[in-house]
Predict the structure.
Amino acid sequence: MLTISGAEAIHIDGSTEYPGDLHLSGAVVSAVPVHGDSLDASGCVVTPGLVNAHHHLLQTAFRTLPGTRGVPMATWLPTMAAAYTAAGLDPELCHTAALAGLAEALLSGVTTVADHHLTWPSGADTVGMAQATTAAAHQLGARLVFVRGTARDDPQEAALSAEAIAGTLVAGRPDGISEDGMLQLAVGPAGVHSDSAETFRLLGEVAQRFGLRRRTQANEQVDVAIALEKYGKRPIDLLEEWGWLAPDVTLAHLCDVTDDEIRRLAASGITATHAPGCDLPMGWGIAPVAALRAAGIVVGLGTSGGGSNDAGHLLADARLAMQVAPLVGPPLSARDVLGMATEGSAAGLGRPELGHLRPGAAADLCVWDVSGVADAGVADPVAGLLWAAPGRRPRHVVVAGRVVVRDYELVGGDESAIVAGLKTRVGR
């Protein structure tokens, strides 16, 4: 039992806010007061925990590498691949990188991370790699959605690996979600630019067999160019032909989409993920988020990985999403984008209990101090979370009713030890 007490504002969801207390009963939000511990939220705004709908945790170990900034994707991809090979990708590296990426997530207010893991050396211990990543999440108390991805992998090998991971990580669970809701499994090819129709088909069959959701990346500009060159068709056409436009599918990026494609995507029931912190600096395009939302497409928010974004700070990317929106359409409000980073992302994961603080919701939340000089003069403290202090961190973070960040420090791990461990492993 936990009470979040004395908040200046509690942002329940996009339509409900009030000052005062929030009550948690075990791992869920309670509609009635509870008796137990109290967490001081005076001078603070409380929000649902943020949901990072698209990350590549492995890339946390490979940030700002020489030759990865301001280059075409055709140059970026082999540069990153060479770095993975040089480092020696194994379960230990997966665990060390995930610890750093998930620690960064929690310390910046992200309580759920969808990790689209794309790098699998042929013959590697793929179950061990997946277990190493999930162990990091368990240690720190973060929710994890582990996406068994592919990027030019052998289709049969990828499908067999996905089956083995599903059988080990979420055995017997019909929806691919652990009983306590802390772990979820999904599948997802990198995109039509790298994976074949057979890969999409086989992973789709695994998803159907195990009740998993499907995710892929689509319509960054390079994705469109490669699809046209290789197939004479645009990515959305191929995804439709291959059975990957459906309500259980989430598409990340969607930078270069036509009005007709937006209408088709909306009719299919897919959800989308915006990743401006990756796409904008890399020159890969800007998703027309307002147009997607106007068509009825639910849009979430993701950081993508450290190889293209360098930061896993979703609130900072939410601010960027507001700033760039007018370049490709109407502006987006702070509450709209906060909704994308919470309920919008959760919808793409098929997790209606996440991303809000209505009674019965998962007890995942952040307590943000708005009493300092960075928020001085702010008329709307909820909007100010995004507009002011772009690098802000929450004072406290709660996941499933457990305090995982208290007074700006991790509870389940030592930040300096995590940093030292990664530095030792990769030599940086």
Observations:
- The longest strand covers residues 2-13.
